[in-house]
Specification:
Number of strands: 0
Distance between the termini: 10 Å
Number of domains: 1
Largest sheet: none
Structural class: mainly alpha
Number of helices: 5
Low-confidence stretches: none
Shape: elongated
Order of helices and strands: HHHHH
């Protein structure tokens, strides 16, 4: 194996890398669907969400709907890009997972359980894509 690597040839893909990226892609698609659904609910039925009084980041529920819908679609597309093996997909996926987690943090007063679930899934994706095992070669 050492000879193969010293010749500058391509390295074999680690099983951990394939598993981590597949997991992250699957969860990203799921997060995207969840976030887009929350956005659609906010757009179609803005009385569904209870608006907390005196919330510092008070934004109209329709505004939150558009934010969630756009981020949800982008997150799902990043998940599909991970499956496609695009070289830029992991960086984009981590960045979008951060944006998704932050937007859901600000959405906690409107729908706490759902927001905390999406934040936890985003953290799981970031963890999955940044594991050192992903970059070890078998």
């Amino acid at each position: 194996m050492a000879e193969y690597e010293s010749r500058g040839g391509p390295r074999p893909v680690s099983g951990w890398a394939v598993g981590g990226i597949t997991f992250a892609g699957t969860i990203m698609i799921m997060i995207g669907i969840f976030q887009a659904l929350a956005g659609l609910v906010a757009l179609f039925n803005d009385e569904f969400f209870v608006v907390a009084p005196n919330y510092t980041y008070d934004l109209d529920v329709t505004g939150w709907g558009w934010i969630h819908l756009i981020i949800g679609v982008l997150v799902a597309l990043a998940g599909f890009a991970l499956f496609a093996g695009r070289p830029w997909a992991a960086i984009v996926a981590i960045t979008l997972a951060i944006f998704s987690a932050v937007s859901n943090f600000f959405f906690i007063p409107y729908y706490p359980f759902w927001s905390l679930l999406v934040i936890a899934l985003c953290v799981w994706v970031i963890w999955s894509l940044t594991r050192p095992e992903l970059y070890r070669q078998t």
